[in-house]
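Tokens for chain A. Residues wanted.
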């Protein structure tokens, strides 16, 4: 359990961005799905399923970018030395 808490603290900004993105995405997806289907149940189902998967993808996408930027910074420091 402490590992999970440590990971959450370490990734607080990314997790916060992921959660806010998730709620925005659900809202947009629900509106679009309802406009297309005219069915409230179908729109809610679609708007919860797809954004949930996207939220996980977004989190790992952010982590990959962080690693890339960190590597670029390290290369720049080595080049300056």
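Reply:
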């Amino acid at each position: 359990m402490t590992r999970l808490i440590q990971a959450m603290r370490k990734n607080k900004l990314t997790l916060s961005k992921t959660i806010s993105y998730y709620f925005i995405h659900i809202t947009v997806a629900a509106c679009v799905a309802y406009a297309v289907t005219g069915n409230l149940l179908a729109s809610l189902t679609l708007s919860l399923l797809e954004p949930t998967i996207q939220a996980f993808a977004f989190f790992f996408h952010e982590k990959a970018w962080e690693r890339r930027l960190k590597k670029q910074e390290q290369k720049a420091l080595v080049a300056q030395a």
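Residues 2-80 form one domain. The radius of gyration is 18 Å.
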